[in-house]
Specification:
The chain is of the alpha/beta class and 217 residues long. It has a single domain, classed as 2-enoyl-CoA Hydratase, Chain A, domain 1 (Alpha-Beta Complex), CATH 3.90.226.10. It is 41% helix and 25% strand. The chain has helices at 2-8, 46-58, 76-87, 105-110, 137-157, 163-170, 187-191, 201-216, and strands spanning 10-14, 21-32, 43-45, 64-74, 93-102, 114-117, 122-125, 182-185, 197-198. Strands 1, 2, 3, 4, 5, 6, 7, 8 and 9 form a 9-stranded mixed beta sheet that branches. A hairpin with a 6-residue loop joins β1 and β2. It starts with a helix and ends with a helix.
Length: 217
């Protein structure tokens, strides 16, 4: 268990009264995908998450999954793939954004069956970006437009926010004075339809326990 916490931010939580087991999974730092991040960067590794989630789906001893999220975003393709994997799981899932959910972290944080955000936590929605030289600008633009469409469609499907609103938030001049996008804090993200409730760890665990009990009836 100590190795799982150290390497993957995972731990099993057992309810002594009911005997039901919740798997805790942390999604923190940068979403590391096809390219490795620097040694000093805290990451959630794509190649670790896929087998963990697949094994949990198959593990009959686990009754539900709690995702604790505090991420600055990262690899868009891999983050979206992980979000799709979370959304497809048959076990009850709850997500709690406890610090930040930026960029591709937004699809990850809305993918669970029920979603919480801490009152002080922030969400940043912005357009897909690229650093460095671009060859074939029209083709790159169309490709980025396709990726952005995939992201906004996923967020709209797994939240109560309208796709048209999400598209608008992406390009809205916001608090980030040298960029485009929108920052939402806590209750405002709930009011906009991205999350279902504000809350903390007791609320998230209680909700997951309720969902597990309802499924077992």
């Amino acid at each position: 268990m100590e190795d799982d916490i150290k390497e993957f931010g995972c731990r099993r939580l057992e309810n002594k009264e009911t005997g039901k087991v919740i798997q805790l999974i942390s999604i923190i730092g940068e979403i590391e995908g096809h390219e490795c991040a620097g040694n000093n960067t805290k990451t959630t590794k794509y190649e670790h998450m896929i087998p963990i989630l697949a094994s949990l789906e198959h593990d009959t001893s686990v009754n539900g999954i709690l995702f604790m999220i505090n991420t600055i975003g990262g690899d868009v393709s891999c983050g979206l793939a992980l979000a799709e994997l979370i959304a497809s799981m048959s076990k009850p899932t709850v997500a709690l954004v406890m610090g930040d959910s930026h960029s591709i972290g937004v699809p990850l944080s809305v993918a669970a069956d029920y979603t919480f955000i801490a009152p002080s936590a922030t969400v940043i929605i912005h357009p897909v970006r690229l650093n460095g030289m671009v060859l074939g600008a029209p083709q790159t633009y169309e490709y980025f437009k396709l990726i952005q469409e995939r992201i906004t469609t996923f967020i709209a499907k797994h939240s109560d926010a309208a796709k048209e609103d999400i598209d608008k938030w992406m390009v809205e001049p916001g608090i980030l004075t040298r960029d485009l996008g929108t920052i939402l804090v806590g209750q405002e993200a709930v009011d906009r339809g991205l999350f279902q409730s504000t809350g903390g760890i007791p609320d998230a665990i209680a909700k997951l326990d309720e969902m597990i009990a309802r499924r077992c009836q």
